[in-house]
Input
Amino acid sequence: MDIEKKVWEVLCSEEEIQMRTRELGAEITDAYTDKNLFVVSLLRGSFVFAADLVRRIDLKLKVDFMTSSSYEHGEESSGTVQILKDIEEDLTGFDVLVVDDIADSGLTMGCVIKHLKTKNPNSVKSCVLLDKPSRRKVDLEPDYIGFTIPDRFVVGYGLNYGDYYRNVPYVFVVTDQDR
Ligand code: IMP
Ligand code: MG
Output
């Protein structure tokens, strides 16, 4: 499908995302004040959200990145999650917050949390910009959620469509209508 020719419906505007990110940043700041926060951002989808979120967390913290395989080109999850790039640092003594763009089946977040727990951190929690709970295949409830959304394929603000459109500053869905 050539999405350039379709109508784009804004699901979360730039202003809404900014406001919600500010709220989440404040909540996380409160929750981690006496902790040792280590943010793990999942590439590539969460790079925009993580960059905005960490600047709303008013604490001394570390950031590192992981890459796991997910469905980059199609609309269906493969059901298997592979770690392609692990974090570089030791997590002993840290309180880890895994940041991703979206929890869909929950397989990615579930697998990453399980993997990071083997690295001896104090705690591991999760934060997603978007949550699609209706699609869950595993028992996973993100600790911090930006927006709960219906079962639609979403694009923008880090989320890709056929490897493009990650730079669109808002989250949108593609409708059936032609522009
Ligand atoms: P899960 O493992 O099924 O929860 O999927 C998580 C990953 O799939 C996310 O990190 C996204 O990269 C990708 N994903 C899930 N839903 C969408 C979507 O609606 N648009 C773009 N990417 C998505
Ligand atoms: Mg992803």
Summary: The chain has a mean pLDDT of 94. Strands lie at 6-12, 37-43, 62-68, 83-85, 95-103, 123-131, 144-148, 154-155, 171-178.
